[in-house]
Amino acid sequence: MERITKSMIESIIGATLLLLSISVLPVKAEAPAEPVDQESSSTSIQTVTPESLAERYSMVVETLKPPEKRFIPDDTLRALEKATSAVKCAVTVEVGHSIGKYAAWDPYAVGGEGEEGIGQLHPQGKLPTFLAAGYTNPNDPDQVVDFMNKQFALGDANHWAGYYPNGVCW
User: Fold this and answer.
1) How far apart are CA 112 and CA 74, in angstroms?
2) DSSP 30-61
3) Are 92 and 65 a contacting pair, CB within 8 Å?
4) What is the structure's pLDDT at 20?
5) Are 51 and 16 in contact (CB under 8 A)?
6) Cα separation, 60 vs 42, whole angstroms
7) Gap between the Cα atoms of 75 and 64, Å rounded
């Protein structure tokens, strides 16, 4: 008996989604090669092309994608377990307390100048560096802690509030 592999399952799911999309989603009609006499034709015939099938398949797959993960303050605390003591101090200064409408340790905290996440990455400061380094989500505590660990190792701690001259993390 042959083992069922992951790729076999993916192929079956893909084919099933494609078949479902044909019956569920509207068909993209192509213009007929010859004019159709509307009086003699009670129904119109639509041509299904590989392109229209691919488009409908993409639409079905897009609607079945799981929602993006929402992070919570507990994710911040868990991520900080991998942080250096200096990064833990900086994150505590940045988001370890309630900020306006944001709860303590909120991964979605936004500062007054648009700073994002637990690292309060500034749009004209470290956010571009974060994205250029290949990170994708400034609200993901794991990504931010990893980034901050690396930045601090490079001697770049002065971009965070706890490390300004005479900051609490000195």
Assistant:
1) 24
2) PPPSS---TTT-SS---PPPHHHHHHHHHHHH
3) no
4) 56
5) no
6) 30
7) 25
State the amino acid at position 14 in one-letter form. G
Task: Count CA atoms closer than 13 A to 75's CA, side-chain side.
Answer: 15
3-state SS assignment for residue 78: helix
Mean of all residue pLDDT scores within the chain = 78
Q: Cα–Cα–Cα angle for 119, 160, 102, nearest 5°?
A: 45
In 37-153, which ranges are continuous DSSP H helix?
50-64, 73-80, 85-95, 126-132, 141-153
| Spatial distance between the Cα atoms of 123 and 126, rounded to a whole number of angstroms | 7
Domain boundaries, the chain: 6-64, 73-163
Four-residue CA torsion sign, 88, 82, 156, 95: negative
pLDDT at site 136: 93
Say whether pLDDT at 14 is over 60. Answer: yes
Distance between CA atoms of residues 134 and 13, nearest Å: 31
- Mind listing the pLDDT tens digit for each residue in 45-66? 566 676 766 677 667 666 666 6
Taking the CB of residue 46, how many other CB atoms lie within 10 A of it? Answer: 13
Report pLDDT for 141. Answer: 97
